[in-house]
Protein 1
Amino acid sequence: MQPFFVTRWGNPSSAYRFGAQLKAEIDRAHEAVAALVGAEPDEIVFTSCASESNNAAIGAALAARPNKRHVITSAVEHSAVLNFCKAAERRGYKVTYLGVNADGLCDLAELAAVIKDDTALVSLMWVNNETGVVSPVKEIAALCHGKGVLFHCDAVQATGKIPVDLNLVPADYLTISAHKLYGPKGIGALCIRNGAPFEPMVIGGHQEAGRRGGTENVGLIIGFGVAADSATRNLTERAAQVRMLRDKLEFDILAAIPGSRLNGNQALRVPNTTNIGFDGIDSDAMVAFLDGQGVCVSSGSACMSNALTPSHVVLAMTQSVEKAKQAIRFSLSHLTTAKEIAEAAERTKQGARLLRT
Ligand code: PLP
């Protein structure tokens, strides 16, 4: 990325030679991100973040179907979807927030039942960011299309962790973020399938084929492309390695700490996440303790945890504010080592002992 911030100036839209060179690099990034999700390069639109992609997708679907005033989402979505839907409610839309069971999964029969003639869009995530639980998105896409409803899928936590192929899961809109697959922060993408209606949220110039105005953030786009390419090439290997470490960490903690429990379905999960609740321990106290020990974990999503509120995801799964206040999310990467995992497990056991006395 560095040359694009330091020496390779120029505007990709300009006619001079190095403008065209930058444009070619951006095209290559489109190809890399498209390959990661089984899409065509011209279906990818770079945005400033996944939150923007989520807003743009839902907004476009509603704008395209002005007579349809109903949206379906779930109680465990990211705040970029939940708060956009709440804003839509204030503008007169009706929003159904599907609940989830103790495994963190929505009921497909319930989804089928709540889709009505005036439903414009279903927006459901592929993988939950707090628990790592994987939704049956293939069935959800089929159900939506069978009923003529658009389907937006927030795949931020799925891409780079498990195979994401839009040829198998035909979502109309797919949200992706670079920094969840080891790319830079501040850059996301929205995949708009050919044929899906779209009106730009950022109205401006012709950039991104007129679907997102504004001069491209070339350095970040290049970084996203390289990260996407690396994720595509290394997905299987990274997943196997991280799953082994995650399972070890989880086993060590659950076996050693009485009153600890897994939140979410054990089998239907991405390999890098585990969400564990500790009876009698406030998650904020555990996060602070572990932080002091050099172990970085979280008690909810980064976008929510500043608010010191109980995890809305674990609350929806358990209906227990107490359990929602005890949830800790451990996220690993292929760069995490076995030594670090052993250390994290030890510190967590120490934390549980100290915080319960
Ligand atoms: N959707 C999910 C599932 C996420 O986990 C996140 C980030 O944590 C986002 C959306 C928002 O991503 P960004 O911070 O790039 O807007």
Protein 2
Amino acid sequence: MTKLLTLTFTAIFMTVPASTGVTAEEAATSTRLHTLKNSNGMEVTVTNYGAIITSMLTADRDGNLADVALGHRTAAEYIAASEKPYFGAVVGRFGNRIAEGTFTLDGETYTLATNNGDNHLHGGNVGFDKVIWDVKSASDQSIHLTYVAKDMEEGYPGNLSVSVTYTLTDENQLVVDYAATTDKATPVNLTQHTYFNLAGEGNGTVLDHEVMLNADRFTPVDSGLIPTGELRSVKDTPFDFTSPKSIGRDIETENEQLALGKGYDHNWVLNKGVSATELTLAAVVYDPATGRVLTVSTTEPGVQFYTGNFLTGTLTGKSGKTYSHRGGFCLETQHFPDSPNQPDFPSTILAPGEKYESQTVFAFSAR
Ligand code: BGC
């Protein structure tokens, strides 16, 4: 099941500059694709470059399989893509934004890359999406990947040992388990950045998809998409997805927060009930055209619902179709953006001796 990436994949990799985090030699010898397959024919393909999910074959209401995950055809395209969409990647050490790329921890101020305007995004210039992970074990339905981020890598304190396990169950669930330990206190916020189009990657926009988010509140942002600190009710706003509605229904409404996000690009505060860390429902997405349903559950307190607002129609996907504006959506389960600077948000600080553990389940069905 595990195989070397194709010749084109590795050959193009040879021209990749070292600043991307991968040397040509590493790329040529260390990248792999591994396909998970269950008894229903569902398939998920993963590469150890960025722990990226490169494809997800799921059935529609008639049992026809289609690839519902946006992605590139070659490793070189993942590295060179001008828009840097983070297709399918594991994002870290800190997913989402940290204001002005700085935070103070235990009296020490740390400076991170500002790779998103004035702010730090998705772990910096060479985040976990741009490094080669070790494949510790792989079987027909599971793959376990690890990565050790060095002390001060991308400016973060502490040697951080991270693992991600993808498990495909016979119930058509992709279970993503994250774990991490550190030798110095450090912020950690890992997430999965797959863009879904339940009609199949490259098949138009996702504006007709119907979405339910299990969240009564969201975190409004400033012009740099940094949360203001407020937890605002979604009631009577375009941000109310407590009952299913199409993504497109309110997305063009005149609204300050929609204008700032250029659409939906916000963190919703999940309704967690009694235990803040138990696995709870985050979102249900339904594509009326194909009947595919994606149900997302997570132990995390938040989810970034991002509607592909920065896709411009210039990237060509795996099957040769271009990815249109809003041609995919992400449900990035996470702690809230900028948590290291927001004392009232749930803490993202991992201390030595503690274990970071987080689980998200992407379950597929059709109706
Ligand atoms: C962010 C978007 C960003 C996208 C790709 C999302 O998590 O919220 O603003 O464009 O990732 O980087």
